[in-house]
Design brief:
Helix content is about 15%, strand content about 40%. By secondary structure, the protein is α+β, with helices and mostly antiparallel strands. Strand 7 and strand 8 form a beta hairpin. The N and C termini lie far apart (about 55 Å).
Length: about 260
């Protein structure tokens, strides 16, 4: 989509021209999810989805961010601010309609407000939990929860709430990693219903664009085949230093005896 390509170019600080064509993505494989490099575990799941050629094309900083394997109790946090946010009337309506499933789309259009993204490992589901918090000029911040799981026909799915999810494909160019909606679905236990194209909210692209200065841009664009761009948001982030994992508190004899 040209709108997403231009948004990514602006986020990377490049001229407003078409982005390089992304390399094709192979079908998901069953390669190992983790490798031990001697310096710690490396997550291979995104690399496996992309394939070696596309993965190698990414900036080193992007490869490093998407190779973090988080252990129990560990989290990685990215902090920054929203620098661009806009919605059409259809986009505003859609964001409100999605409130019952956890409000996964930005509700407001405030800019220059703080934003925080935290990623933790989903040990049970074999994926990652993503928690996004967006500040607002008035009122409490908006908090969005989702879970990425390496499953389904495309090899990657994002679960939003109330059984609603998105099957994703991935692509890469020399400055960004892109997540594209392949289709939307509803699941209830073992039952799964794929939403028909006419009922889908639009083509969603989320891009992780390297800035070349230690930071990155998070670019979200939702494009509808009839209404064009209906939602767009850009946030600038940097990784926030923190402990590798939270310390585990062991019960002591004194605490047990005191009933605490």
């Amino acid at each position: 989509m040209l709108g997403c390509q231009r948004a990514c170019a602006r986020a990377a600080g490049l001229p407003d021209t078409d982005a390089p064509a992304a390399l094709p993505v192979p079908a998901p494989g069953n390669g190992a999810a983790v490798a031990d490099t001697g310096a710690g575990l490396v997550d291979l799941r995104f690399r496996t989805l992309l394939g070696t050629a596309a993965w190698s094309r990414l900036p080193a900083a992007v490869r490093a961010r998407f190779s973090k394997r988080l252990g129990p109790g560990a989290a990685v946090t990215y902090a920054g601010e929203i620098v661009e946010s806009r919605k059409s009337r259809i986009g505003r309506l859609l964001a409100q309609i999605c409130r019952p499933i956890g409000a996964p789309l930005p509700l407001g259009d405030d800019i220059a407000v703080p934003a925080v993204v935290t990623v933790t490992e989903d040990a049970r589901g074999g994926g990652q939990f993503w928690t996004r918090m967006y500040g607002r000029v008035r009122g409490f911040p908006q908090v969005i929860h989702s879970a990425k799981r390496f499953a389904g026909p495309t090899g990657l799915e994002e679960y939003l709430g109330c059984g609603f999810g998105i099957a994703l494909t991935v692509s890469a160019d020399d400055r960004a990693l892109h997540f594209h909606s392949h289709h939307y679905f509803l699941s209830f236990g073992r039952l799964r219903w794929r939403l028909p194209g006419w009922l889908a909210p639009g083509a969603l692209t989320i891009s992780h664009v390297d800035r070349g200065d230690g930071g990155f841009a998070f670019v979200l664009v939702l494009w509808h085949r009839l209404f064009g761009e209906i939602i767009a948001q850009t946030g600038m982030f940097r990784e926030r230093p923190g402990p590798a994992r939270m310390p585990r508190l062991e019960p002591t004899a004194a605490s047990i005896g005191a009933g605490t």
